[in-house]
Structures are given as C-alpha cells and as structure tokens.
Design goal:
The structure is a homodimer of 310-residue chains. In chain A, 35% of the residues lie in helices and 23% in strands. Chain A is an alpha/beta fold and 310 residues long. In chain A, a hairpin with a 3-residue loop joins strand 9 and strand 10. In chain A, the strands form three sheets. A five-stranded mixed sheet of chain A has the order 3-2-1-4-8. In chain A, strands 11-10-9-12-13 form a five-stranded mixed sheet, sandwiched between helices. Chain A contains ten helices and 13 strands. At the A-B interface, helix 8 of A face helix 8 of B.
C-alpha cells in the first residue's frame, strides 16, 4: 500500500507517492495559479493525483489514504479550509472537492503543522514524546507535537508560535502586533536589520551585496565581516530568548529548527546551544535538545502522506 | 469513599478530606517549620492525616487515595521531590516517606499544576478540552491542561509560564532573566512600578499608603486616582499581550486568572477582554474565553485530592 501526500502551496501543487518504508517513490506538481476559481484548482489537484498513480502503475486500490497540507486555518474534522489568507479561500470544502477524483479517506492539515508532523514521525523528532518545530523563514511558523499527537488547539488554529511576544511594544510585526517573536526571529527580520544597518557601514560585505538575503548576512558573519557578526549575534540572542521561553513553558524533549535561516546548520545551533541555557530557569538546567530539521523540502509532501498515522 | 488532599506549603501543611461529591468535608493543618529535617516534616504530615481521619470517624478503608501538592520540581512517577527551591529538598522520596502512615496510593503534583487541575475538574475549566490557568501572585505561575490531561512536560518541569519573554532585555526577573512575563504581570511587578512612580506623585493615594500592595494600586485605580489608573492600565496592557501570545500559541478553550491580582475580578477581566483580542492574530478573532478562577484557597487541597482522576 502507498499513501499520497499533497502540498498545496501558493505557487505550486506538489504531490508525492509514499511507500510503506516511508520513502517518496514518485512526485509531480502543477502550478496553483492562485486567484482562479477554487474548483479549477481542485480539478487540477485531482487530475495530478490520477496522473501520478497512472504513470507509476498504481491504481486507487493501492492507496491507503490521501493527506493534504494547505496554508491557513483548516478544520480537519469537516475537511474544510476555514480561512486562508494567501489563497483567499473561506469555508471551502477541500476534501469533498477532491473526493470524486480519488475514493479513499482524505486527511487535511495546516502546512506548518504537516511539516512538523513529518519531522516528528520520520525526521529528527523520532521517538520524542513532546516535540516543537520552529520554521525560521519569511515568517516564523511552528508545529507542536504533545504526547505523540499533533496539537492544533481547541479551534484548529493553534501553534502560531511566531506571534508570541518577544519584545512587546518593539518592532512592528506583519500581524499588526509590535514585538512578536516573528519580528525578530524570521529571515525577514534579519534582512530588515541588515538593510537598516548596512547604510552606516558601507565597507561591509552586506552593504556591497546587490540583494540582501538571510544568507548574505550569515555568509558575512561566517567570513568575520564585522556588521555580519554583530547582526548574527543579535539574531542569535533574540532567538535564544524566544526558544528558552518555549522550553520554560512547555519543557519539550526536542526543539527542531527548520526554514531558510536554519540552513546555517551548526553555525546557528552551536551559539544557540550556548545562549539558550542561560535563559532556561529550571533548577536542573536545560534538558531539551536543539536540533536541525532534516526533512527539508520534502516535509510538505511527507507530512501530508503521514497525516493518517498516530 | 473519600480522597485526601495535602497542600505542602512553606508555612503550613494543610490537609482535607474530600467526598465523592467533590466537597471538602473536613480539614486541618500543622506548621511546616521549614528548615528542619525532612523526615520530621513528613512525620508531622503523616500524623496530620491520621488525626484528620480519626477525628472525623474515618479509617484507611474509607480512603481511595492521597494526593500531595508540593512546590518545586517533582517526579510524579518516582514520587520524589527532584528540586525544591524554598524547602531545599533535593531528590527526596516524599511519597515513600508518607506511605507508612497511610497504606493507600499516593499521587504527587507541583502546587501550581495541582491548583490548575482543581480549577479544571471542579472550577471554571469544567468541560474544556484545553485549559490554561495563570496565577498572578508574588510570581506568575501556571498550569496547563491539554486534551483533558495535566501537562507537565517531558521532564516534569513544564508550565513555568511566568518565565516566557514578554519584553526581552527589560525589567530584571527573579529568575535572572530580563523581561520575563513575571517581571511585568506579577503582583510584585505592579508593586515595584507603584513604588517607583509614587515618589513623583506625592498627591496620589498610593504615595500616601503606609504599605503598597497590589490591592493599594487596584483600589486607587477604582477610585479614579490618576497614578493608580495609569499603573493599572499599563499592567493590563502588558498582561493582555502576554495572554494573547498564549492564545496565539496554544489556542485553548479557556484561560483562567487566579492569584492576588485576579482578586480584582471583573475590574481586571473587563479591560482584558477589550485589550487581548487586539493582539490575537487568528483570522476569525479570539475564540478563547477569559475567566476568573473560582477555587480560591481551596485549590491546593482540592487539586491534590483530585490527582488520581482523569
């Protein structure tokens, strides 16, 4: 038996077939073309699934279930998108619309939660009881696994971890609040600070870059560029305090870091492992492990394909 | 059948008998006299339990189980106090030491968690799936119930909710961090700010008070005292942002407020219900209810007496 994982993104719909060993054995994608009628998008998703099965010599009979990871607020029980900022879907019955194309159980999950679930079941979270994943990208996303189960809150809207206060009253966040964790710990925040400071340090590699990305700052820090080192240290200091707060609050086994900034790997983890414990208040010190997420770009398809587990 | 709840505090050991209807039908206490040998304290606890049963015409046969709420880091499974700041108990086998006095199952819980559990099972949290209690006292304590179960983290040290950052780098917290929620939302923080400001506003009722407590500030705010109103508004603003962060993160059904500051009741809840939603980032707005804790001083005994449930 295989399962099908679908990653519905703002740009592409990606789908993959996952075998019982947990390997993606085939994949395909089609453009989302966001903005067109929902039913057209879902028809393309259905066609993509049928094509993927046909071209890989599978039939519906081989499929255990289908999982869909989608952005926004979802209702897993009803199988609907409750509210989706980017795709502008409101109360849309996503699983019912896919059902005519594949007559198997369909599970639905928020994309950030799905990625965390993949990391928990197949990645660096394996065997943990309580596991939290932070995605340090354009925003700061997250997923929480507690007692071995994906936690999505009382209203399926949980784990907006990026919108907990870090410095209330501080930097303006995309959500309208001031001082959210996201306003300090996202790639966007690192880039904002770099642009702000670079104008005063024209000799920095950052000021000389054509486009400033999180990687520009990290590469500069690695090379010992003074501004790069300072920006990265400040970033680590902020992130360390946010992570310590999560540890003090929820005491998980593992916190995993994914997303663009986490691509820095040990260059980020090593100073974090020094800084975070300074802010952990437990008498026995810090027992939570900080790890790099391992699933990378496969997390969306893989997590969706695992939504029927556990 | 009855259950016995024991509240081991720094000043007193309080014990109560709780009937099947969930009522405390008898209670007694004895001074803890912290600092003396542990075994003496536990002997007094055992004697207290035996006396309470005898004087109320019960025998061991009538007892279903005993629950103990104690401060510090506990290991429920091993029945030990792992580390206790105030009583200076380290790796002490608390349940084994009580067992000779009462031959029934003994459960152990952290005092803040026990109070939250009481509030969940018998108080304002009844029927909720996910419930968080904040205790706004000398510090900011808390307890988390997720999926109907008390959540204490992977290492039994979870829910130090007061030591999540609110304004990282800000006011010094008792834990050594700067800018913890506790450093803004505890009674201690409110009193610190009142003392700091009162010297500049000698005409304020707060400046004229002999002793400044949280109640002094709240009473002044209620009376329209300018400094009192300002201090209380600032307190509400800080607390609202902290609460909204918890909602964004964990999306519970209910957040309950207990402890000294929460004695202000609707005077605190009413402005919070206005301020918190401004910082909640979910597209559908705030679905979590904010309530006052109902159990008051009985929470310790009652929660301990309920530790064997659920």
């Amino acid at each position: 038996m295989i399962t099908i994982g679908i990653d519905l993104g703002g740009t592409n719909i990606a789908a993959g077939l996952v075998n019982e060993a947990g390997k993606i054995i085939a994949r395909d994608s089609t453009p989302t073309k966001a903005g067109r009628p929902y039913d057209e998008i879902m028809a393309d998703m259905g066609t993509l699934v049928q094509k993927l099965l046909r071209e890989n010599k599978f039939t519906e009979e081989d499929v255990k279930y289908v999982g869909i990871g989608a952005p926004g607020v979802l209702d897993n029980k009803k199988g609907t998108v409750t509210d989706n900022g980017n795709l502008h879907w409101v109360d849309y019955p996503i699983t019912a619309k896919l059902q005519p194309y594949i007559h198997k159980p369909i599970y639905l999950g928020n994309d950030a939660n799905v990625a965390a679930w993949a990391e928990y079941v197949r990645g660096c979270g394996k065997g943990a009881e309580n596991f939290i994943m932070l995605t340090l990208g354009t925003g700061v996303g997250g997923g929480i696994i507690l007692n071995g189960k994906l936690y999505t809150g009382s209203h399926n809207i949980g784990a907006e971890i990026g919108h907990t206060p870090l410095k209330a009253g501080g930097e303006l966040c995309g959500c309208g609040n001031k001082g959210c964790m996201e306003a300090y710990c996202s790639a966007t925040a690192l880039i904002r600070n770099a642009k702000r400071e670079a104008v005063n340090v024209p000799e920095s590699a950052i000021a000389k870059a054509n486009v400033i990305s999180a990687k520009t700052v990290i590469d500069a820090a690695k090379a010992g560029d003074e501004l790069g080192v300072r920006l990265f240290q400040d970033y680590v200091s902020d992130l360390a305090q946010a992570i310590a707060g999560i540890i003090n609050f929820l005491d998980p086994d593992i916190i995993a870091l994914g997303g663009g900034v986490a691509n820095a790997g040990e260059f980020l983890l090593e100073p974090l492992r020094r800084e975070v414990p300074k802010h952990v208040t437990f008498p026995g010190g810090m027992a939570t492990r900080l790890l790099s997420a391992q699933m990378g770009n496969d997390a969306g398809i893989m997590g969706a394909a695992l939504l029927g587990e556990g």
